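Q: Predict the bound structure with adenosine-5'-diphosphate.
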Amino acid sequence: MKFGGTSVGDVPRLQEVTAIVKKFLDKQPIVVASAMGGLTNVLLDTAQKAVERKTGEVNNAVAAIRERHLQIAHSLIHDYPRRAALIKEQEASIDELTSLYHGVSLLRELSPRSLDAIASFGEILSCRQIAAILEENGIKAQYIDARTIIRTDDTFGEAAIDFKYSNKSINRALTPIVQSGTVPVVTGFIASTDDGLTTTIGRSGSDYTGSVVGAAMNSEEIWIWTDVDGVMTADPRYVKGAKVLPEISYREAAEMSYFGAKVIHPKTMVPAIEKKIAIRIKNTFNPEYPGTLISAKPTNGGSSAKTVTSIGDLAIIAIEGNGMIGVPGVSARIFTSLARAQVNVMMISQASSEHNVCIIVPKKDCATGVSVLKDEFSVDIAKKIIDDVSVKERVSIVAVVGEGMIGSKGIAGKTFDAVAKANVNIIAIAQGSSELNISFVVEESDAKKAVQSVHDAFHL
Ligand code: ADP
Ligand code: ASP
Ligand code: MG
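A: Predicted complex:
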């Protein structure tokens, strides 16, 4: 059972988590949890303040973090020795965090490696208090720092898990705990390299930790407890009439989360697929509701789209030129140079004239992308084989996803008709031959309108 930030973010939520764990104790649950809601952002923003030497703001932020956790301890732990022991450990972590901020200020240097060390405190503080709260309520529980069981490479901020090592070590550490009737409470999001440096596995990565642990333990199911009733036909914050989907396939979940459905981290499906473990999305605010079941079962019930999602903060890089037509190796050079610079390519579109190749990348990778492409093609640009590498910022990808779309006619027509009716201009289009997903690019300011209109057109 993975509990997200909102679900562990205040006293009533933590009481609910306790009730849920208690209710399912006979299933021998393992808990994986996030930092208290919003805390990871606070930790990272404060690191920025530290590097700018805004000492007063850093001190205030640390005081607020301390206060937020102490308040939980005082409200939910009444056994004096237990509370004192928890507070002592929490204080030690907060002192350590303070030293890290101090170091960042002194050096005026904030590397991805330091950011990971700083971000890790959210999950550490949160899971330690959850274990104590469970114990307080008569549930045997043990805090587990995931850095001792999950190993990654050193790509700080988005580290890749070493499954061979981690699967064994998770199993070795947690099996005896579970067998003794104790609930392990494992920190989401964080891990460590083989030489013991703290890493994180990507923002919102606790879902992924949940499935890594669930798969390593051959769990019956992986439950992701969050703050909505399940995976919905669109983001409920932006789309009127979004509905909960009772079932979706792994592939659908992966596609929609990759294109912006924040409810589950895209990598969560990977370990689950391998072990054929179903994932269930459930609501801590409405625990009786069945939620959404994500499994291998194709849900080809209809012949239509199932969800519409969008993701912003992207840019289009276009490589254009008449000289590119029919020249072999252009694409290979584009993607090899981008890969070497670790630029994440979200979508590709090339029309058959081969005159223009469009690559959609996260905004943060855009400058690097343009610079490596200009470098790679400098000779071709000089020779006018390629006109230029151009950029358009502030675009979003809208994705229409559903296995029912496979082999059914008219989906693209209906989608683009709806977008046109919303008076939105489409900048680029892509559909892989899996036919599971039609994606297109629009101005960021048009994304919401486009999503709503497509959602309405398919009566989702
Ligand atoms: P947690 O902290 O539990 O990990 P998140 O905030 O990461 O929760 O994810 C849950 C949120 O995802 C929901 O509150 C909802 O606003 C948002 N969301 C975006 N797209 C969807 C979707 N298609 N279905 C359900 N929720 C979605
Ligand atoms: N706390 C981390 C984040 O905010 C991981 C997570 O919540 O899943 O990104
Ligand atoms: Mg999340």
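A: The chain has a mean pLDDT of 95.
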